[in-house]
Amino acid sequence: MKFGVVVFPGSNCDRDVQTAARAAGYEADFIWHAATAVDGFDCLVLPGGFSYGDYLRTAAIARFSPVMAAVAEFAASGRPVIGICNGFQVLLEAGMLPGAMLKNTSCRFLCKAQRIRVESARTPFTLKLRPGQVITLPIAHGEGNYYADSETLAQIERHGQVVFRYCNESGGATPESNPNGSLGNIAGVCNEAGNVLGMMPHPERAGEQILGGADGRLILDSVAQWVQGGGRIG
Amino acid sequence: MADRLDNEQDRVWQTMGLTDEEYERIRELLGRDPNYVELGMFSVMWSEHCSYKNTRAVLRDLPTSGPQVLQGPGENAGIVDVGDGLAVVFKIESHNHPSAVEPYQGAATGVGGIIRDIFTMGARPIASLDSLWLGDLSSARARTLFSGIVAGISGYGNAVGIPTVGGQTVFHPSYESNPLVNAMCVGVMRHDDIKRGAATGVGNSVMVIGSTTGRDGIHGATFASADLTDEAVERKSAVQVGDPFREKLLLEACLELVARGCVLGIQDMGAAGLTCSSCEMASRAGTGMVVDLDRVPRRETGMTPYEVMLSESQERMLLVPTPGKEREVREVLVKWGLEAVVVGEVTADGMVTITEGGRVAAQVPAKALADEAPLYHRESAKPEYVDRLAAFDTDDVPACEDLSGALLRLIGSPSIASKRWVWEQYDHQVGAGTVIGPGSDAAVIRLPGSKRGIALSTDCNSRYCYLNPRLGAAHAVAEAARNVACTGARPLAATNCQNFGNPYKPEVFWQFREAISGMSEACRALGTPVTGGNVSLYNEDGETAIRPTPVIGMVGVINDVERRVPMGFQADGDTVVLLGATRDEIGASEYLAVVQGVEAGQVPTLDLQAEARLCKLLWTAASRGLLSSAHDASEGGLAVALAECVIAGSRGASLWVDGAGADPGLTTDRFLFSESGARAVVSASPSTLDAFLALAAELDVPLAVVGRVGGDRLCVRFGPAPDGTARDGSTLGEADAARCIDVGIEALLSAYEEAIPCAMQG
Question: Is the dihedral of CA B295, B301, B302, B307 positive or negative?
Answer without folding.
Answer: negative
